[in-house]
Amino acid sequence: MPATALRVELGWRAGPGVPDADASALLLVGGKVRSDDDFVFYNQPAHSSGAVRHEGKRNTGDRVTDTLLVDLARVEPGIETVIVAASSDGGAFGRVPDLYIEVKDAANGAVAARFDSAGATSETAFVLGEFYRRQGAWKFRAVGQGYSSGLEGLATDYGITVDEPQHTAPVPPAATAPPAAPPVTAPPVPAARPAAPPQPAAPPAPVRLTKVTLTKAAPSVSLTKQGGTSGTLHVNLNWEVRKQFSGWAAKLGRPVAMHSDLDLDLCALYELTDGSKGVVQALGNAFGSLHRPPFIHLDGDDRTGAVATGENLTVNLDHQHLFRRVLIFVTVYEGARSFADLHATVTLRPQHGAPIDFSLDECTVPSTVCALALITNTGGDLVVRREARYLVPERGVSPQRTVDHAYGWGMNWTPGRK
């Protein structure tokens, strides 16, 4: 490997009936993980060492990519191998055309290695390649080992404990004991109290492989039916800017500046059942609160778009009966004139239930505000709907007022600053 900071891209050609695919990584010692924490995938997107991070999907025309960021300089000394794998969702890899992985220098985008996987049939998971140590340096080789048992089979083969439904074994009938002999009276003998046996440590929670991906064809999911009606709902926005310079966007017909200091703001409009309305955003330091109204809190203000940090917002679902609706949206604060050439992934991770994710479509209008997801509470049914809707503010109208008007929130707005 010519560099240690790498972007590993899993790609394929999208189309009708083509299954979705997901990239994952396993950090191995002696061919096995040390614990379930050494598995990086959509439900566990970052390794504790910071060496591997799942960045998320991008849709560009008829191409789809799912990306892992790998920093070989941060891989712990005991780790010998970093496996790069792929799993399919909704069908076998025989129906996924033009499947490949590409290893790029994260700094300049130069391609260091590429492997085009051909000839797949019924496989639902693949080990496509691996990074391994050799004489003090990191190397990469293609593998192409397929599994018909999906991500679960691949993960368990490397020592991951996977969550699965528990089946209760029938309890055998108790045996009838013979009559007890009469007790023999003996003088009492002082006895030391036996030491309590040490309590075994609770086993770690198994890894959950379930997820929900929202699309145009299937844009909604019920949190209630998924069991996500208590605890917290963590919302993350991560993004990647392909252009790091000012240029012309052909589809917009106007200059669009994209700089490395791009600042996006994750925000939420809320309406509670008592009629109160408001916004949670970094602008005006309206970060909200998790344990008092509006029960929504913005963690901070990030400029990197990294999935391990990024823009994060938390909703307290213990008070979900007080929500009427919540609209999650994002604005361009500075660093760009629109969302053009921006590739972003939204993940909603309930404390209970499967995580929900979706990618934003390519922006073809001069938009500085995008409605991401609408959460509504109707008759106790909490539903998340993918919006992915780019809005174009009129001249002199703020992005916040624009999204307010589009969704009929009816609030009064005044200028604010960070």
Give your account of this protein's structure.
With 418 residues, this protein is mainly beta. The protein folds into 2 domains: 5-157, Lipoxygenase-1; 213-407, sav2460 like domains (Lipoxygenase-1, Sandwich). It is 5% helix and 43% strand. Strand 15 and strand 16 (277-280) form a beta hairpin.
- Summarize the main sheet: 7 strands, mixed
Unreliable residue runs: 165-178, 243-260, 303-308
CATH class of the largest domain: Mainly Beta
Shape: globular
Helix proportion range: under 10%
Please give the CATH architecture of the largest domain.
Answer: Sandwich
**CATH superfamily grouping of the largest domain:** sav2460 like domains
Biggest sheet, spatial arrangement of strands = 11-22-21-13-19-18-17
